[in-house]
Amino acid sequence: MWVLFEAVLAGANRAMNRASNPPDAFFRRVLYDIGYAMDTPTRKPSDEHGAILPALIAELASVRVTRSVEADGYTLPEDTRGTVVAVYDRGAAYAVEIADLPGGPEVVTLRADQIEPAH
């Protein structure tokens, strides 16, 4: 998220410095930078911050929660098991169906650092 924010700020500064019509050029440049940052592959190492996302988990894979987390109004204890039903933003987050929640199965959204493949 910080990479996107930094890209937007950098683009905004460039647009404001070059623009003859600052407000119009500013917003066009910000929208361009957001689009570019969203389309840039997020699974590669970055020279700017060195972060690498964990390996992509496939849909229908069994996963476990790596630590106790709050997600979509539920408290999921460590080692809760579920099934990936959707992958968001090239693996930055996942929709995971948890079968053993109060009230029956529910789909919750979890970040990549909150789950790992179940073995």
What is the secondary structure topology, with strand pairs?
Blueprint: H1 2-18, H2 22-39, E1 62-65, E2 69-71, E3 74-76, E4 81-88, E5 93-98, E6 106-111, E7 115-117
Antiparallel strand pairs: 1-4, 1-7, 2-3, 4-5, 5-6
Question: What does this protein look like?
Answer:
The structure is a single chain. Strands 6-5-4-1-7 form a 5-stranded antiparallel β-sheet, with no helix packed on it. It has a two-stranded antiparallel ribbon with strand order 2-3. It has helices at residues 2-18, 22-39, and strands at residues 62-65, 69-71, 74-76, 81-88, 93-98, 106-111, 115-117. Helices cover 29% and strands 28% of the residues. The two termini are 30 Å apart. Mean pLDDT is 76; it is low at 42-47. It has 2 domains: 2-39; 62-117, SH3 type barrels (Roll). Helix 1 (2-18) packs antiparallel against helix 2. With 119 residues, it is of the alpha+beta class. The longest helix has 18 residues, at 22-39. It is elongated, with a radius of gyration of 19 Å.
Alpha carbon gyration radius: 19 Å
Strand content: 25-35%
Number of domains: 2
Going across the biggest sheet, name each strand in turn.
6-5-4-1-7
Low-pLDDT stretches are 42-47
Largest sheet: 5 strands, antiparallel
* N-to-C SSE string, H for helix and E for strand: HHEEEEEEE
The number of helical runs is 2
What does this entry show, briefly?
With 119 residues, the chain is an alpha+beta fold. The protein has 2 helices and 7 strands; from the N terminus they run H-H-E-E-E-E-E-E-E.
